[in-house]
Amino acid sequence: MISEKLMSELNEQLKHELFSSNLYLAMAAYCAEEDLMGFANFFRVQAEEERFHAMKFFDYIIEMNGRARIPAIDEPKNNFASILDAFRQAYTHEQFVTKRIYHLTDLAMEEREHATISFLKWFVDEQVEEESMFNGLVKKLERIADNPNALYMLDGELAQRTFTPPSDAKQA
Ligand code: FEO
């Protein structure tokens, strides 16, 4: 049985994942305005991933006999100084999300809520990938800062990214 406190924190995470989705959509719009459609595609796919994360929390809350509450979502930042600035902010945001997942896991462990610990494990692993991906792109962008050719090459690479939900993951 999940405590009210833990259930409310799971619902709070649903909000953070929906916010993340909107934040990356805002970054996609910024990149499109800069005519970097590969970067825009990258963030658009990331927005879909975040929606998928949100739906995992939504489903889990219901599965555990809770009541998912759909929250108001704050407006994300819509303007960025540069592509690098957007990626730096995305990386910082992912570090925040990792802290949130750790906080949830600590709470579930305190309550010996084994099902929730197991559910959150997927997110612990996912955050390792997300932080590593954004950190890697920040480093790449720092290196190619003044090289438009390299920027367009990376844009072409990121145009290939597609969203594929993990086959073992439950979707709504
Ligand atoms: Fe759902 Fe990027 O964390």
Question: How would you summarize what this structure contains?
Answer:
Helices cover 73% and strands 0% of the residues.
Folded structure, characterized:
By secondary structure, the chain is mainly α. The protein has a single domain (4-70, 78-158), classed as Up-down Bundle (Ferritin). The mean pLDDT is 95. The protein contains 5 helices and no strands. MU-OXO-diiron (FEO) binds at residues 17, 20, 50, 53, 94, 97, 130. Fe cation binds at residues 17, 50, 53, 94, 127. Iron-storage protein. Residues 1-145 form the Ferritin-like diiron domain. InterPro entries: Ferritin (IPR001519), Ferritin-like (IPR012347), Ferritin-like_diiron (IPR009040), Ferritin-like_SF (IPR009078), Ferritin_DPS_dom (IPR008331), Ferritin_prok (IPR041719).
Write the topology of this structure.
Blueprint: H1 4-33, H2 37-63, H3 83-110, H4 114-143, H5 148-158
Helix pairs in contact: 1-2, 1-3, 2-5, 3-4
